[in-house]
Amino acid sequence: MSWAEIRGSGAYAGRWVAVDNCKYDAKTAEPVEGTIIDVDDDLVELCTRIKQGEKQHCAILFCEDSEETAGPSSTHRVKVPDYSPTTH
Questions:
Q1: Residue 85 within a domain
Q2: Is pLDDT of 34 > 70?
Q3: Residue 35: per-residue pLDDT
Q4: How confident is the model at residue 12 (pLDDT cuts 50, 70, 90)?
Q5: How many domains does the chain have?
Q6: Cβ of 74: how many Cβ atoms within 10 Å?
Q7: Predicted confidence band at 57 (pLDDT cuts at 50, 70, 90)?
């Protein structure tokens, strides 16, 4: 899907979206398209599922409500930390 289609869909508005094969515009660094692999309102829950799954190298982007953004898409990129829990 294109990022414009994702942002235009009410299903993703105000939610965190995990996107595989994400392509970015070379000039603006804004997402252009990708394949949605998971979605959640809670970033921690989404990151936990991504860490447990096979698709660990994906982009996680926040899809703002289309009414909240008047101009180009506003994105927040998240890097899922690579850590192992330690026992004390």
A1: no
A2: yes
A3: 94
A4: very high
A5: 1
A6: 14
A7: confident
Domain interval for residue 19: 3-74
Bridge partner list, 59: 19
In a domain? residue 20: yes
User: Within a domain: residue 83?
Assistant: no
Give domain status of residue 47, yes or no.
yes
Exposure string for 2-29, b = 16+ CB within 10 A, e = fewer: ebeebbeeeebeebbbbbeebebeeeee
- pLDDT for res 66: 61
CA pair distance 12, 37, nearest whole angstrom = 12
**Two tokens at 68?**
């909240």
Cα–Cα separations (whole angstroms), residue 59 to 37, 52, 67, 75, 85: 10, 15, 23, 11, 23
Rg over alpha carbons for the chain, rounded to the nearest Å, is: 14
Q: Are the C-beta atoms of 3 and 73 separated by less than 8 Å?
A: yes
